[in-house]
Amino acid sequence: MPLTKDEIKLVDKMLKGDRVALGRLMTLAESRHRSLPGILERINSSAYDSYVIGITGPPGAGKSTITDKLITQYRTQGKRVGVIAVDPSSPFSGGSILGDRVRMHEHAMDDGVFIRSSSSRGLSGGLARSVSEMIKLYGAFAMDYVIVETVGVGQTELQIMDIADTVVVVLVPEAGDAVQTMKAGLMEIADVFVVNKADRDGAKVLASEIKSIISIKSYKDLWEPPVLLTSAHVNEGIDDLKNQVEAHKDYLHSTERFKEIRDKRKVEEFSSIIKENIDRELSKKLESEEVKKIYELVRSAEIDPYEGARRVIQKIM
Ligand SMILES: Nc1nc2c(ncn2[C@@H]2O[C@H](COP(=O)(O)OP(=O)(O)O)[C@@H](O)[C@H]2O)c(=O)[nH]1
Ligand SMILES: [Mg+2]
Fold first, then answer.
1. Where exactly are the structural domains of the chain?
2. Best substitution site from 233, 234, 236, 238 to test ligand 1's pocket, by max atoms within 8 Å of Cβ?
3. Closest residue to atom 28 of ligand 1, CA basis
4. Residue 85 forms beta bridges with which residues?
5. Which overall architecture, per CATH, does domain 47-254 show?
C-alpha cells in the first residue's frame, strides 16, 4: 500500500523533529492504521536503535514516578528519552493517564523528551505490535532510550520481556510478599528489582525476601538481578537504578544476548507484519458479495456451516 502525499509529508516532518507529526504517527500506530508498514519502511534506514527499558509492577507502585525521575537522570547526560505508558484504566475513568501527565509534566517543555500515554483498552488486539511500532517511531525521532511503563499483574496482554531490553520490576511492600511476586511470574522476567516506597514499613523485609529467592534460584545467565530500594517521590535510589540499568545494558552487549534479543525481535516483527497483511487481505475478501451470499445460504440452512466454510475458503485462498 503506497503512502499518500500527506503521509509522506507527515513522516518527513517527524524526521525533522516535528513533535506534532510524531504524535500523529503515534496515533496511527495505536489504531493499527494500514499505512503503518509503509511509514515504518520509509523511516527504517534513518532510525536509531533506541535502548528499551520496561518498567512493570502493580498499579500505584510508583512506576510513573520512577520513570519521571529516570528521565531526569538521562536528560542530565544529554540522552533523549521517549516514554510509552500503557495504562489499562478505562478511557472513562482515565484517572491515571491524567496522573502520568501530571507526574511527568516538568518534561513537557523539553524537546529531548516525549511522553505518550495509551489506554491498553484502545490498543487491545495488537498491543505488542502497536508498542513495537511506537518504539520504532521513537527511534526515528532519535531517542536514545524508550521507557515502556506497563502494569504487571499476571495476565497483562503485553509481554514486556519480548519488548524491553532491560525489564525493571517495581514492587512495594503493601502489594504483597515475595511469594506472590513469584506467583505473578515477575521473578522470571526481572533484570532489575526495585522495591519502591522504601520509606514505608516492610520495604527492607521485602527486599531481603526477594534477594534470598534470587540466591537459591539458579539463573541461566551470568546476570543476577540486583534488588534496589528506592523512594522515588523524593528521588532516592534513582541514580543507583540508572547505574544498574546501564550495567545490565553493558552485560547484554558484552555477551551474545543483545544480538539474540534483537534478532529474535526482527524475526517476530517480520512474521507479524506478514500475518497482519494476510489477515487484512483475507478480511477484505470476506466482505465480498460472493462470500455474503454463502453466509446467507448458511443462515437459511440451505447448506451446513462446514460446506459453507469450505466454499468460502476455496473462494478466498
Ligand atoms: N511514600 C511514597 N510514595 C510514593 C513513592 N513513589 C511514588 N509514590 C506515590 O505513589 C503514588 C502512585 O505513584 P505512580 O508513580 O503513579 O504509580 P504507578 O501506578 O505505578 O505509575 C503517587 O501518589 C506517588 O506520589 C515512594 O517512594 N514513597
Ligand atoms: Mg503509572
1. 1-46, 47-254, 269-316
2. 233
3. 197
4. 117, 149
5. 3-Layer(aba) Sandwich (3.40)
